[in-house]
Design brief:
single chain, alpha+beta, Rossmann fold, 8-stranded mixed beta sheet, 14 helices, 19% helix, globular
């Protein structure tokens, strides 16, 4: 399990007003829109929502698109992805038409691996929400090793990052009376033993960092109030966070504390049996991955002790705890076109998922008698995306899902040296024979070759409208997935778009992790423009190849990708004809004062420092909107309950467009958190809205 700060389910601070210490807002006439539940702000949101609904929901085909999208997203024929393997059991969250929020369930590992799982329901989220009068959204579970009898379950009311945590008994399928319970907050827990938790949460005044995360790790023992928990470690207020994690091997526990200095640098310490904190020798930009055989494994973001950037290294934890200088050995060094994405330990096997020119591979590593590691690649289909879903700790077994843009997902049980066994395969959900996918490379402004995947009907002549999706940040690679899924990429909208004769593109611009740490670092801070130049280059390459045409290209992105498309819109309004801006980060002058914004300064810089604002100001979309420019009319979507990227970003961008007399479509879901939708119903509605929006803006519909 990787211990890192990511854009996953844990970023940010309390809803409502800006954080203390925020810069004065008097100069911004749209500052009132930062009040998440403010009456004036919500009145504006309701008006914008109604205006967009009146156009898009009444557009030709909307109802049919929504109905088909929902059928695809809620199809009972879906992969039962193993969320975790715990001992001899597999856990899974299942969602379908009857269970919109999902069913958390368990099956034996043997029945699951045989492709005939015998499921037992643990929690029906929809029923629980009705019974408790809450809009529960699943946030995951941490089950206590090695017996896995109890789990800490995370539930969010409405889908935000702030969530409650409750102890659950796996055998009885009930919450534990008088068990561990944490109120709604951005918390982290780790089992310190059968009757104790490491906890970081909102303990009261002074217990949070400036980014809104817990600043203190405490040890909380069963039967005592949270107020009696004993402090184990503390971070600085200026740090991003501090987080506990416990790696378990049989009866051995290896607790670590990661003090997040910024988004990419963490000071890692081991917790000795007597409670002492012992610093790891790892550089602060390394990422702790897992523990196997008492050795800690990490990937390097910069060269260290003769080992290159991107390598997996290991050392013996016992040496560090004993005060000895550990021997650091290389486990795996990726090639120039490769990037290590994920590392997971199983029984005597280290599973490594990597990319090679953005195509997935899965490799099993085993230590030989001489201490050297031997690699054995799993014989999975080539030129696909590979998801390492889970590794079993009790046997040499991992589960991996393989898919492509035109290839439906198949779940495999993988064992070293044996042919992978298909556990479950989805039937095709569309006619892929009428489409083709190719990988192309565009040349960016500085000469860098930028890969992208293109899906269209074969044998096309003449330019067609094109939709390009990208992200370009936080070391997150964008890999090809089946066109019916991925709500984060507008879900089935990409499928509908290609079926109707248009082109869909997934661009692997810099800032992501497609080629390892260097690909990410090439777009950090003052180098951010490289990501935007890469996207422009992909668009220009489509035009030069006759695939699309100027003004007939849509740019799509969400979160950091929402920032991306906001920049594209303001830098090259002539090039793009449509902009799909999801949960966007666009006011880069204010971002570090809104919710978790301070935690991202390692990515973008600190706008309160003149030297950093000098390069941020060059692209900040909110500040760059200007009068007299004909911008593409964007489709902007967000969520009121997004407690990761403040909805004020989207609101203020829309307000400024309105003040400039420019058109836009705006959709703010009430629930759903950063995902901008709490369930598949909202995902299907958004896919339909995106599709009719694209048809309207790029398909020749008259503009108001």
């Amino acid at each position: 399990m990787t211990l890192r700060l990511t854009l996953s389910s844990a970023l940010i601070c309390a809803l409502a007003a800006p954080l203390a210490g925020a810069a004065p807002l008097a100069a911004d006439p749209n500052a009132y829109l930062e009040a998440v539940e403010g009456a004036a702000a919500l009145a504006k949101v309701r008006r914008w929502n109604a205006a967009a609904d009146a156009v898009l929901e009444k557009a030709p085909g909307f109802a049919a698109y929504r109905e088909r999208a929902l059928a695809l997203l809620q199809d009972d024929a879906q992969i039962a992805t193993p969320d975790r393997v715990i001992g001899d059991k597999v856990l899974n969250l299942w969602r379908d038409k009857a269970h919109v929020r999902g069913v958390w369930r368990v099956a034996s590992l043997a029945s699951f691996a045989a492709g005939k799982p015998e499921w037992r329901t643990l929690i029906d989220l929809d029923a629980l929400g009705r019974a408790e009068g809450r809009s529960w959204v699943w946030g995951g579970a941490d089950c206590r090793a090695p017996d896995y009898a109890r789990c800490i379950v995370t539930l969010s009311d409405g889908g935000g990052d702030a969530a409650v945590r409750r102890e659950f008994d796996l055998a009885s399928g009930t919450f534990v009376a008088d068990g561990f319970v944490l109120p709604a907050a951005k918390s982290d827990t780790a089992w310190a033993g059968p009757d104790a938790l490491y906890v970081t949460t909102d303990f009261g005044p002074g217990s949070l960092t400036s980014s809104g995360y817990g600043r203190i790790v405490k040890l909380w023992r069963r039967g005592t109030p949270l107020s009696a928990a004993v402090t184990v470690a503390e971070a600085e207020t200026s740090d991003v966070s501090i987080r506990p994690h416990v790696f378990v091997e049989g009866e051995a526990r290896w607790p670590v504390i990661a003090r997040g200095i910024d988004f990419y640098r963490s000071e890692v310490s081991h917790v000795a049996p007597d409670g002492r904190l012992v610093r790891s020798p790892l550089p602060v930009d390394a990422e702790v991955e897992d523990v196997l055989g008492g050795h800690l494994f990490a990937t390097l973001a910069s060269p260290w002790q003769g080992h290159p950037t991107g390598a997996i290294v290991e050392y013996a934890i016992a040496d560090v705890l004993a005060g000895r200088t550990p021997v650091v050995r290389a486990v795996m060094v990726p090639g120039p076109s490769q990037a290590i994405e994920q590392v997971a330990a199983g029984k005597a096997v280290l599973w490594v998922k990597l990319l090679d020119d953005v195509s997935g591979r899965l490799v099993a590593l085993r230590r030989g008698a001489d201490g050297a590691w031997a690699q054995q690649a799993a014989a999975l289909p080539a030129n696909t995306t590979v998801h390492l879903d889970a590794a079993a700790g009790g046997e040499e077994l991992a589960f991996a899902t393989v898919e492509g843009m035109l290839t439906p997902p198949t779940l495999y049980a993988v064992r070293p040296g044996a042919a992978p066994v298909a556990v479950q395969a989805l039937p095709a959900r569309f006619d892929a024979s009428k489409m083709e996918v190719t990988q192309r490379f565009a040349t960016s402004k500085d000469g860098t070759k930028v890969p992208y995947f293109l899906v269209r009907k074969p044998g096309g002549t003449g330019p067609v409208p094109a939709l390009i999706h990208a992200y370009g940040g936080f070391r997150l690679a964008q890999t090809p997935t089946y066109l019916t899924g991925q709500p984060y990429r507008s879900g089935p909208a990409a499928l509908f778009w290609v079926e109707e004769g248009n082109a869909y593109v997934l661009a692997n611009i810099r800032g992501g992790g497609e080629y390892g740490p260097a690909w990410h670092q090439a777009a950090l801070r003052e180098k951010r423009q490289n990501a935007y130049d890469d996207f422009h280059a992909v668009a220009e390459d489509l035009i030069a190849a006759g695939i699309s045409a100027k003004g007939k290209i849509a740019a799509s992105g969400r979160s950091n990708g929402g920032l991306l498309v906001g920049v594209l819109m303001t830098q090259r309004p002539d090039l793009y004809g449509a902009i799909i801006m999801g949960s966007p980060l666009v006011d880069m002058k204010r971002y570090s004062h809104l919710l978790a914004g301070a935690s991202w300064m390692g990515e973008y810089g600190d706008p309160d420092k003149p030297e950093d604002w000098a390069f941020i100001e060059r692209y900040s979309p909110y500040q760059k909107l200007a009068a007299g420019v004909r911008y593409p009319r964007p489709f902007i979507y967000t969520s009121t309950k997004d407690d990761r990227v403040h909805p004020g970003h989207a609101r203020k961008f829309a307000a400024k467009l309105e003040q400039l007399g420019d058109g836009f479509y705006y959709s703010e879901a009430i629930e759903g958190g950063h995902a901008a939708g709490a369930d598949r119903l909202e995902d299907a509605r958004r896919a339909a809205m995106v599709t009719v929006y694209l048809n309207r803006e790029l398909g020749g519909a008259a503009r108001d």
